[in-house]
Amino acid sequence: MSTLGVYNKKHKVTVVGSGNWGSAIAKIVAENAKEHPELFEEMVQMWVYEEELTVPTTSKHYDPGSKFSTQPHKLTRLINHFHENVKYLPGIALPSNLIANPSLQESVHDSTILVFNLPHQFIGGLCDQMKGHILPYARGISCIKGVSVDSQDVRLFSESIGHKLGIYCGALSGANIANEVAQEKFSETTIAYDPPPMDSRNPSRNPTPKAGTPQGHTPSSSQLDLTAINEHKDAKGKTSKVKLIVPPPDLAPIDHNLLQTLFYRPYFHVQVVSDVAGVSLGGALKNIVAIATGFVAGMGWGDNAKAAVMRVGLLEMVKFGKMFFSTSVHTETFTEESAGVADLITSCSGGRNYRCAKMSVERNISIHEVEKEELNGQMLQGLSTAEEVYGFLKARGKEDEFPLLVGTYRILQGEVKVRDLPDMMARK
């Protein structure tokens, strides 16, 4: 897909994280790295949190006569031997050029592109371990859905990574169920990446223009050397505190074209946009809407009611983004992209937040009880997001402007009943 020129150096790619979604993304990246040797080093590193396990008896690799199957081994050894993550993505063949590495520092060494795919609570600690071990001009993509919210601020995980490591980091999000993507069932995703000026507007390079950028006098024809600029704007339009380092000119620029080449597969279509805040917010707020949809499904109110909740939820997602990230969020990110409406539909049709909310009404128990009974220790992200978003809105006196987001929180708190939701959603 790429029409990028020939460069003397190749990008080395590392995936930080190896759960089911991390392994699925690593599979895609490794496939594309092998297919595009003009741009990427063939071998892709995948950092794995090391643990020991025995090959499950249900695995196709299990051999009762082999000590390799019957005795515990390091997970990285099993992945590299079988070319399969037998614990987190069983039954899916991984490319032979994907290398599982238990050392975080070794796996990120000399990598120019870092793909983050791990639980959000580990971001800070892992970034601290990576400091001093990454290239100063590396760039990142965060596949971690959601945002960090408290009463003071809304922070994007991609920007948290960027601030910690002193690099620029974009985001990937969409209607992406990991197992379906790994099984090569058709799906779409959205990558949000707003290339810093020194990366994609170098006069010697021809970047992909952003939507709405006037054509004619382009950066490539300008006499201004933007490689001398180390500042860039954050998602709120403010000058970032991170001072970026210019990548070497003999590396292909990390822009929309290159990211398409790295992540696009015939079964995994990619749309690249510049709206990092919109893509990140979509992955967070849709979980609250999914809980509300599950509530009305549990009441047996039918598909019309679910559609009404999704419609109002989508409008409130757009409103939240435009209100608090006015300089960067685009309505179209929510209404046209996989990271917006498509992810909302998927989450409100069968995601964990939807299913647990539905069961809580059907069983007449709290959703917290369902969470404990059904998720085997995993947490519903929508519960914490609903609480955090409510606290953020309350601190600004904006509760009345988001009746569905606030109403869902109040139901979770037991302040109101699910049957009150239609009245709370009604246009005033």
Structural summary, described in words:
- It contains 18 helices and 12 strands.
- The protein is 42% helix and 11% strand.
- The protein is globular.
- With 428 residues, it is of the alpha/beta class.
Strand content: 5-15%
* Low-confidence regions: 201-222
Major sheet = 8 strands, mixed
Average the pLDDT over all residues and give the rounded result. 91
What does the overall shape look like? globular
Count all strands and give the number: 12
Give a short summary of the structure.
By secondary structure, this protein is α/β, with parallel strands linked by helices.
Topology, pairings included?
Layout: E1 13-16, H1 20-35, E2 44-47, E3 52-53, H2 67-70, E4 73-74, H3 75-82, E5 98-101, H4 104-108, E6 113-116, H5 123-130, E7 139-142, E8 147-149, E9 154-156, H6 157-165, E10 168-173, H7 178-182, E11 187-192, H8 197-200, H9 256-263, E12 268-273, H10 276-298, H11 303-324, H12 331-336, H13 338-350, H14 352-363, H15 367-374, H16 381-395, H17 403-412, H18 421-425
Parallel strand pairs: 1-2, 1-6, 2-5, 6-7, 7-10, 11-12
Antiparallel strand pairs: 3-4, 8-9, 10-11
Question: Characteristics of this structure?
Answer:
18 helices, two-stranded antiparallel sheet, alpha/beta, 428 residues, globular
